[in-house]
Specification:
There is one protein chain. Helix 3 packs parallel to helix 4. The chain has 10 helices and 10 strands.
Amino acid sequence: MIIDKWLSLWSIGEDHSLSDLKLIKQAGFTGVEIWGEHAVAEKSLEYAKECDFDIGMHLPFKNLNLSTVNKSEGEQVLSTMKRWLSKLAEFEGCHAVIHGGTLSEIDSLDQSSKVLIDRLTELNDYARTYNIELLYENQIPDKSRRTHVYPTSLGEWVDTLKKTNTKACLDLGHLAVHGESFKNTVSTLGELLKSVHISDNDGISDLHLLPGEGIALNEDPLDYLAEIDYHGPVVFEISPYKYKLDDILEHPFILKC
């Protein structure tokens, strides 16, 4: 299977250079996903443009809770996300990945769900003015049920995607920890699926291991994606705390893509 092979720049850490992106390009990657949490994110956009990559962005999420019921906090989230979407548009970015946030006050679930739908719809409309596809990512639910992580189930995820007219970014690491079936999830998403994040783990924690170093990818996901004629980005999102760039670029699974 020939895939649209991308790398999340989270995978190479914040201290990266133009030379690093040139190496990624030489290794056959067609796109990079800028990590919005990086202080150097704007410089990363410049590097990516210079290397003629297709460009996406994982929007920042720390202290940015899209589902907060606090109005002023919600307005800050929208302002920050719109600023990054505008910046991404300057570099002709094609997609942006977003988290739904976490609700800590379970009694406010109905209110929180409504503001999430409203804000996600507003951001999607804003992104579309720049021809950017907003991709809502699956998350790992809180098994203690002390908080509500959006989305916390496949049904909730698909319902939100349809209500907000957004598309899906499927993170296979999150899915494995959640314990959901890859094939069933892909089948349920159908044409809503527009990007896939790949990493391995032990089925317990989201470790972002290289393929084959955990149990999450015992079945090659690329085989099934080929069966369904999937044509979107496959984004490798690998831990920068465990691996170096060479480890990623020289890995057999990634080389064969």
